[in-house]
Specification:
Number of strands: 7
Number of helices: 8
Helix content: 25-40%
GO molecular function, one term: methyltransferase activity
Protein name: Ubiquinone/menaquinone biosynthesis C-methylase UbiE
Order of helices and strands: HHHEHEHEEHEHHEE
Structural class: alpha/beta
Distance between the termini: 48 Å
Keywords: Methyltransferase, Transferase, Ubiquinone
Pfam families: Methyltransf_25
Region (Disordered): 209-229
Shape: globular
CATH architecture: 3-Layer(aba) Sandwich
CATH superfamily: Vaccinia Virus protein VP39
Strand order of the largest sheet: 3-2-1-4-5-7-6
Radius of gyration: 17 Å
């Protein structure tokens, strides 16, 4: 893990790939299942794309919702090797998600746990690429967690992690981009809308509620306008 943290993002995830599914960084099954359940009301879908697919955990969601072929895209060869081994029936593409090589090919795109590996200034290019990759009427969906209360241990743990990463990137090259506090919902909605999406959210009821009664997580639904809109 120390070697990974001192590597570039791509090299770091190549190193982590064989053990990634056994780390806390993998999206929990509960979140995947809650996302699939929330998306079921908007399907079924045809072709599906997992953006920043990692080892392929999102294939569980796409496989349950898509009637056509499903594809994963990532820039880590190590991650793709693990994904290909776990899901040989899917298609796998190595590419930079800031320049996705697709045009009107998919009906549903998802991403899980990847936005923290993008700097805020990189999101517009990614969202524009996903928009281009979808057919008219297609949906881009991903879960976001509710921000933890300031008084909680989780709030300070995430803040501390981000501060450590910022110090690391200030003194060490190449940078390793992995932050937990760079994706507030309001900023995500703004960037998605700027890319042309119509954005709504739905609560992930299966994840429960916070003490204040709000949902612990929401599913962002960004729809590309259809030909009849």
């Amino acid at each position: 893990m120390a070697v990974q943290a001192l590597s570039s993002v791509e090299r770091g995830y190549d190193l982590l790939a064989p053990k990634f599914d056994y780390t806390p960084f993998r999206t929990p099954d509960q979140v995947l299942e809650a996302s699939a359940e929330a998306l079921r009301a908007y399907g079924p879908f045809g072709e599906g794309l997992d953006v920043c697919c990692g080892t392929g955990a999102g294939m569980r969601v796409l496989g349950a919702l898509c009637e056509g072929r499903v594809t994963g895209v990532d820039f880590s060869a190590g991650m793709l090797a693990q994904a290909r081994q776990a899901h040989p029936e899917a298609g796998w593409v190595r590419a930079d998600v800031r320049a996705l090589p697709f045009d009107g090919a998919f009906d549903l795109a998802v991403t899980f746990g990847a936005l923290g590996h993008l700097l805020p200034g990189e999101r517009p290019a990614v969202f524009a690429g996903v928009y281009r990759a979808l057919r008219p009427g297609g949906v881009f969906a991903f879960p976001v967690g509710a921000p933890p209360p300031v008084a909680s241990r989780l709030y300070w743990a995430l803040l501390g992690f981000d501060l450590v990463m910022r110090v690391r990137n200030a003194v060490w090259r190449p940078p390793f981009v992995m932050y937990y506090r760079t994706c507030p919902l309001q900023a995500l909605r703004r960037d998605l809308a700027a890319a042309g999406f119509r954005v709504t959210t739905v609560p992930l009821d299966a994840l429960g509620t916070r003490e204040d009664g709000g949902p612990r997580g929401r599913l962002v639904l960004a729809r590309k306008p259809g030909s009849q809109d």
